[in-house]
Amino acid sequence: MPSALPSGEPAPEDGSLPDSALAELAEAPASLYLHVPFCATRCGYCDFNTYTAAELGSAPGASRQAFLDAAHAELALAARVLGPRPIDTVFVGGGTPTLLHAGELVGLLDAARAHFPLSDGAEVTTECNPESVEARYLEALAAGGFNRISFGMQSARGHVLRVLERTHTPGRVADVVRWARAAGFGSISLDLIYGTPGESLDDWRTSLEAALAQQPDHVSAYALIVEEGTRLAAQIRRGEVPAPVDDLQADCYELADALLSAAGMGWYELSNWSRSGHECRHNLAYWRGGTWWGVGPGAHSHAGGVRWWNVKHPRRYSAALQAGRSPAAAREVLDADARRVERVLLESRLADGLETDVLTASERARLPGLVVRGLVEIGENDNRLRLTLRGRLLADAVVRDLLD
Question: What's the CATH architecture for 19-287?
Answer without folding.
Answer: Alpha-Beta Barrel (3.20)
